[in-house]
Amino acid sequence: MAVPEFPPFTRLLGVDVLHRTPERTEALLTVREELCNRRGVLHGGAVMALGDTLGGMTASISLPDGGRTATIESKTNFFAAVPQGDTVRAICMPLHRGRTTIVLETRITRGDGKLAAIVTQTQLIFERKE
Q1: With contact defined as beta carbons under 8 Å apart, do 92 and 28 qualify?
Q2: Which of 7, 63, 92, 128 pairs as cysteine with 54 (C-beta 3.0–4.6 A)?
Q3: With b meaning 16 or more CB within 10 Å and e meaning fewer, what string describes 2-22?
């Protein structure tokens, strides 16, 4: 099976995609120094970027050729810090698929299994232009 080519930002984050279907995307992210805040834990922006990345992947995989999505709303709840050196697991699943939008939830857990964050977002579906 060919390894999919992901956008540069996804590679920059260091997202390791384990599974990707229209119903579930799962990935790992090692918490490197470059992704940490001054307290040595995963930066909130990196958490949000991980959630947004998986949401876009999950929303877009079921679209017809030429179909596109864009995030139009995103909310993150933070529950626990993730220290440098740990690896987070992110699992994204759709909550609702409509004709023009898809609502998704990404649960991000630490290496010890504790819930670190939940990212809920809405992706707009762009109609394919012929």
Answers
A1: no
A2: 92
A3: eeeeeeeebeebbbebeebee
Q: What is the per-residue pLDDT across 19-57, written as a single tens digit (0 to 9) for each? A: 999 999 999 999 999 999 999 999 999 999 999 999 999
Contact 41, 84 (CB under 8 A): yes
CA dist 130 and 122 (Å) reads 25
- Containing 105, the helix (H) or strand (E) segment is strand 101-109
Residue 70 pLDDT greater than 90, yes or no: yes
Confidence (pTM): 0.93
Structure tokens at 3: 């390894």
Question: How far are the Cα atoms of 9, 22, 114 from residue 80, in angstroms, in the given order?
Answer: 25, 28, 8
